[in-house]
Amino acid sequence: MTEKIGATDGTAEAIEITKTPEAAELAETASATEAAVHVAFADAALALAGHELSDPVLRALLERVARGELDASAAVAEMRRHVGA
Description:
single chain; mainly alpha
């Protein structure tokens, strides 16, 4: 995959970079690790408040938000539909 990066205002020359499959895999691993950290933080915050997220549907939504697959407002709407609020 080739991507052009650089200034768009004409003050600097854009350069092309080539992303190898290995680089893409590394970025995906970093994103997965970052998502896991976000989920662990949410779990810790809930635990400090005396709560636990045990519903598998709600946990899946939390994980999707952490991975950037779903924005928070869409997740909240889906959570409300799921719990009937």
